[in-house]
């Protein structure tokens, strides 16, 4: 490190000092808000700790308990995975379809863009409260509309089988957020490619599959990773609407973590849970990145 | 009536096909508008229902069939909601948190990005990659140690845990700002340097004024995220009076017997600041998201 420093000219050293000075807030922040908490969580996960007494080292016990005799771990992992499997692909596909619509060149499209993006900017709490009332089994809009067709709507959030799909539907309602990012990707595709394809007599269908989709794969890839991380972190809806119920049907992983840590003060075990979720999210991300070489198209 | 195309003059044929094309375009537009309007109605239904409910009388809530638009709108419901719930208090708390976070971001982010964008120093790339990788770390992993730290420092139930991190730069904003600063020509720095400006003079007099679009993105996102934040406030705050609006709303549910007409009014009021910021800044918001989507 010192030898690199000695090789610098005085001007370069001055520059380097200014650079480090400019970065110093981030470096302090990195240590306090990132490095320390991450390392501490790893350490705590090998301890039994309820805050009342100092932590006691118990080795891998937390992990053994997690993987062998914790039904809540299993059910929360199942609920979260199910939620990801339902909401993620639906959101990606519907988001793309919505973006294709919003990309049509007709007057007034900006107003529609504004409207579809609204659900994505309002808070999870407000959305949750709105949807409790919207999906109310007796007086909610959806069941009222269904009743016009003589259909008895389900109990939605209050039904064992419908609770999780209801939360997924609510999250799909925010599809405008994905659509806006796709839209930016679509508008980045050079128009001359379409013109050339049109001259060659390519149909709209083949233009979509041969030009739009391949050139949109970097955006799709980015969106997939963002939505993937986001979906695993689902929390607010469980907290506000269902409290994890009915019968743990929506007991999502982060909600379990929250209850272990901040309601039951099992800091050691909760740290192990937090770390497990991190590993799941990172492995899913790495998996997507690995496969991306096969399907993401880069011009250069 | 059938017209033999061969009988028509060339110019007449052209005119006809132009007219047909225009007619087809018009029909196409009409179909698109119909689809878009139908979709928009479906999407706005939950929000419409919230607004409609907020103007009803209590006995109308359970009416069958429901009234879509209240014939006798009860605007007084809003006054009642403000009187019954500490709504104004919670919104002010949120506004304070938003302001403090925006100041923090504006003080820290440009300086840090300036370091990455304009100076060379050993380990710069390592530090940059380290910073980027922190964007991928989900926030929940840090909560327990930070909670314990704040507990030891006596900062639980104060606003510090919700404000401090902003003053040390968020990786996402630093990345955005660095990318933006790199597009500003270095010749401007050089010209200012010849005029005798130091590195900080260049930052504050030349670069920051040119970074306004990126700074707007930082301000808008900080506003949205702070206003909507839920997980951190419920962990770090305990006193009911100190809650931001997101937590306050969630707790109305548990504390009061739910009067949905007032409650939906309160929820609607709580999203108005977000909607206002969104309408005025949507160009920047979308531009910011797009920039990340394409470069990320």
General description of the model:
The complex is a heterodimer of chains A (300) and B (296). Chain A is mainly alpha-helical and 300 residues long. In chain A, 73% of the residues lie in helices and 1% in strands. Chain A has helices at residues 2-7, 10-44, 61-68, 71-102, 109-121, 124-134, 141-148, 163-172, 176-187, 191-199, 204-232, 236-242, 253-263, 267-295; strands spanning 47-48, 56-57. A two-stranded antiparallel sheet of chain A has the order 1-2. In chain A, a hairpin with a 7-residue loop joins β1 (47-48) and β2. In chain A, α4 (71-102) packs across α13. In chain A, 37% of the residues are buried. The mean pLDDT of chain A is 90. Chain B is flat, with a radius of gyration of 27 Å. Chain B has two domains: 5-53; 76-295, MetI-like fold. Chain B has helices at residues 10-53, 76-84, 87-118, 124-135, 143-152, 160-163, 171-182, 186-194, 199-210, 212-228, 231-236, 245-255, 260-295. The N and C termini of chain B lie far apart (60 Å). The model of chain B has no long low-confidence stretch (mean pLDDT 88). Helix content of chain B is 72%, strand content 0%. Classes of the chains: A mainly alpha (300), B mainly alpha (296). Chains A and B meet through α2, α5, α6, α9 and α11 of A and α1, α3, α4, α5 and α10 of B.
